[in-house]
Design brief:
This protein is mostly beta strands. Helices cover 14% and strands 42% of the residues.
């Protein structure tokens, strides 16, 4: 039974700011910053019992969730009684110091790494969404297509590779991934996956996100391409709508003189 029927939606919480140097390694390497909005399920004594993404920046979503999970909230009162609630918490990852040459270099690397993905806006008659992606890069790179899902979503991991972590720490989530070697990537490669979303989730807002990580095996530089969709509902049913919050592409590390 969907227990969120008993919840009240509280006002957004003041933004939490993360200093640039405290961002996950992938964000540090690629100079990626931005805002993630986390939706937290808070119990009647103020503890966070679950957290999900309402607005995504895939490479830093997990770090944002970890930060919100560690928070404690003042309980929401209804008729003088503490009740469970949903809270929206913006988590702002500060931008690194400006660096024109680094930005130019990143733009050039992003232009070289091609990744497109087409995801069904609505599910088929069985409730399944289909996604189809294409990628092209250099022989020195390998590609990881990493898929992030909201709680209770079911992803078909047929032909997937080793799950990948996007945040620091052994407790960080490990997300399903698909892997391609440089020879395949240089010729142009593609793949598909499918998933279903829950009919009655605990979350009010949610997202589906894909991160394409092009990693160069020789110089350890990376290109990150991101795409996210928020889960929406209308009179017809569940649908996916593009999430404009995700930074489309970032690259690094850039080194002076290279």
């Amino acid at each position: 039974m969907r227990h969120v029927l008993l919840l009240l939606l509280a006002s957004p919480v003041f933004a939490q700011t993360v200093p640039w140097r405290d961002a996950p390694k992938l964000a540090l390497d690629t100079r990626l910053s931005g805002t993630v909005v986390v939706e937290a399920l808070v119990d009647s004594i103020g503890n966070v019992t679950a957290a999900g993404i309402a607005r995504s920046n895939p490479a830093i979503d997990d770090a944002a969730i970890a930060r919100v999970r560690a928070m404690h909230f003042e309980p929401l009162l209804s008729h003088g009684r503490a009740v469970a609630s949903l809270r929206q918490v913006p988590v702002v990852f500060e931008a690194p110091p400006g660096n024109g040459p680094a930005d130019t270099w990143a733009a050039e690397r992003c232009a070289e790494a091609k990744f497109t993905i087409d995801v069904d806006v609505r599910p088929d008659s069985s409730g399944r969404f289909e996604a189809r992606w294409n990628a092209k890069g250099s022989k020195s790179q390998e590609l990881y297509v990493i898929v992030l899902m909201p709680d209770e979503a079911v992803l078909d991991t047929t032909q997937s590779w080793v799950p990948q972590q996007l945040a620091n720490g052994v407790d960080a989530p490990a997300w399903p991934s698909w892997h391609r070697q440089g020879r395949e990537l240089n010729k142009g490669t593609s793949g598909t996956f499918s998933f279903t979303l829950p009919n009655a989730p605990w979350w009010n807002l949610g997202r589906v996100a894909v991160l394409a990580l092009f990693h160069d095996r020789f110089d350890n530089r990376s290109v990150v391409r991101q795409k996210a969709w928020r889960v929406d509902r209308d009179s017809v049913g569940t649908m996916l709508v593009g999430d404009p919050g995700a930074v489309p592409c970032a690259a690094g590390p850039w080194h002076q003189g290279f």
